[in-house]
Amino acid sequence: MILLMVLAQLYGVVQMALLGWAARTIRLRVLLLAMLGGVYAAAPVAALLEVGWTRMVAAVSGDPLFEVTSRASYTVAPFIEECVKLVPLLLLWLVVRSVRRQWGVTDFVLAGAALGAGFGLAEDLLRYADDAGRAVHLASGGWVIPAGLSAPTVPGVREALTSWLPAGVGSGGPLGDGPADAINVHLVWSCVAGLGLALALRGGWRRAWLVGLGLVALAGADHAAFNTQGIAGGLARALAAPFGAARVLIWAYPLAVLATAIWLDRRALSTPSPLPSTNPASAAAEAAARASAASASAAGGPAAGAPAAGARAAGAGIVLACERRAPVRVVGLAWLGVAHPPWSLWAVWGFVRLRRGYLLSGRGGEPDVALGQAIGLIAPALDRAGGQAGSRVWREAVRRLSSRGAAADGRWPAVGELLTTRRGLLALPWLLLLLPPALYLLVGGVPSLASVQRAMATRYLFWLVIAAAVAGAAWTALNLAAGARHLPEARRHPAADVPATAILRLLVRGGSLLVSLIAFWLLLRGHAPTDHLLAGAHILDAVGQALLIVGLLLALAAVAADPPFAFALLAGDGGELPWTGASEALVGRLVVSGVVGGVGVALMDAGDGAGNSGSGEDGAERGGSGGDRGGSTTGGQEPVSGHELVPGLPYTADELAQLADRHAGAGELEGRPTLEQIHRTLTAVEGRPIPGQNAVRFDDEGVRVIINRDLPWRSTAYFPGH
């Protein structure tokens, strides 16, 4: 039953994302993180604000707390909740320059909808997570919880999939079945408020901010009117009547909002925004072509055509060759997208989002140079993939992507490696931390297995839950500290999704840690696992109905957002890594990895013909014999300056030294070379290719540096034999 609640809320976010494809630049995974932000950041903060407000008013007025919270549920609380749900969006706008430049109105609407869906999911879980034992199965496949004339109803899979923005928990019975009882109202209100915030921050006319604030107020007012049902007096119900009459069209609100946002963004996208006069795209394309020629003598066909492709991309701006050949541009993109699914679809969709971000960044000024550099790298690669040798290029890209995923440091360990490898020993605690919430919420959330929930609330098993919760809080705190430490560099990444992901992760971690601390505080005060968290109304009502064990396990479930390894195959191995100033070619690769993903990087290198991809570090440690793995290899190599390109590589020694040093621990790991030692090795000796891998090894005076051609940020350095 609980899983059905989550799926219904998630499905609404996916529906909005699919409808917003015509103008959005935001990735689906960022929307999913925003949904988690609604669960773990917006909901706890709103609850605490309402707790403070209602208790302060009750203390001053002398009215009973229940009456104060009841009045607040249709007066102040709805406006608090709608504003709090927008705080993560406002925070992203204020602290991340790339979000201000690259996100369009559609992105704000979709992110707001995701935050609202997460907020609604938090209310549902807090209210009904422990009610699985009372649920009655319906013929439609859903469940109903007998509770008066307006019985909470959880939709079945078929009902949810055939509904528009299904609610995680609707209402049935004589007082249910209204237009707003089956739709995700929090998602609807938040997408309206998201449009208002976008207009207030970046409206294109003089009074846009006033219209935007009016939309935010309208969302709060409709929320307040919705809450008057059954508890408000005559005056409040009279004021709410117009909103109630219009609520029969609540299903159309998100459609109207999305249509408006898409129209505004498409108008901005249609405005000519040529590449900057310095033509960074052309420079990046030439750098990539130069690297291809230097690294692979066997790449005569594709490498020789790369400069011409780069020139064509620069000359045509940002339009692919397949678009120019097709009668309608979208048809050309569609044909390229189905050339080698699913990888071709990911690559084309990533390029479209990258191009939209570039065009939107040019509103009122010069477009983002870093995005132009990335376009100059990925556009020629896509042109090659759509040409006569397209099948071979796609096969080579998929092979590189697969081998990189198999050899990457961040790959997920196999079952047999959980107890036998360092990677597995790191993954095992994470899986164990997720076991208690999985048992309570997923297994115990099935009505026929509700006895699992009752068992976990017993004395001895609850001590195990507490131990897991303490360990989970420590895990979250460590990730919170690490994320905060790297946030300044993540903010400087040119692609908006990367800093947005970093900040949303911080909000999720901070919110879940806050809930854990509140639960621990209640436990220290002698509360039992089946005691309620707080008493109140609305979101406070949801918190008031929630058991302490539910809050504890929901907070523990947040560690699912912080696995010990990145699933980097599609996510892009450079996406979450701090971005540092670098050459045009390296900047372009970092942006492509952050926006298009790993498939984009593999596609750019697919025509190079250079050896197999893989992690240089892994390859270096899979054997130490062979003439090519010998010691220092000066070989008459002339020392290079740190500002010059390293022979055979499109990056300078300064850049590669920084990347290798960062991946090797940046001085925080004992037994690793210093930045100065790495830099000296790169400038003093000539690198040798590692057989079977697309990596180069440098050895000098006991220091070994491995440069990964595919993913230079995965380069490393160490002392052989230590």
Quickly list its features:
722 residues, four-stranded antiparallel β-sheet, 30 helices, 4% strand
Topology, please?
Elements: H1 2-19, H2 28-61, H3 65-72, H4 77-95, H5 97-102, H6 105-128, E1 136-137, E2 143-144, E3 151-154, H7 157-161, E4 170-172, H8 185-202, H9 208-227, H10 234-246, H11 253-269, H12 280-295, H13 300-315, H14 321-325, H15 329-337, H16 343-361, H17 369-385, H18 390-407, H19 422-443, H20 451-456, H21 459-491, H22 497-524, H23 539-545, H24 548-557, H25 568-571, H26 584-595, H27 598-606, H28 616-621, H29 653-663, H30 675-684, E5 688-689, E6 695-700, E7 703-708, E8 716-718
Antiparallel strand pairs: 1-2, 2-3, 3-4, 5-6, 6-7, 7-8
Number of DSSP strands? Answer: 8
Describe the sheet with the most strands: 4 strands, antiparallel
Our count of helices gives 30
| Overall 3D shape | globular
Rg from alpha-carbon coordinates? 28 Å
Uncertain spans: 275-316, 566-581, 609-637
For the largest sheet, list the strands in their spatial order.
1-2-3-4
Helix content: 55-70%
Q: Proportion of β residues?
A: under 5%
What is the end-to-end distance?
54 Å
Describe this structure in words.
With 722 residues, the chain is mainly alpha-helical. It has helices at 2-19, 28-61, 65-72, 77-95, 97-102, 105-128, 157-161, 185-202, 208-227, 234-246, 253-269, 280-295, 300-315, 321-325, 329-337, 343-361, 369-385, 390-407, 422-443, 451-456, 459-491, 497-524, 539-545, 548-557, 568-571, 584-595, 598-606, 616-621, 653-663, 675-684; strands at residues 136-137, 143-144, 151-154, 170-172, 688-689, 695-700, 703-708, 716-718. The strands form two sheets. The protein has a four-stranded antiparallel sheet with strand order 1-2-3-4, with no helix packed on it. α19 runs antiparallel to α24 (548-557). The chain starts with a helix and ends with a strand.
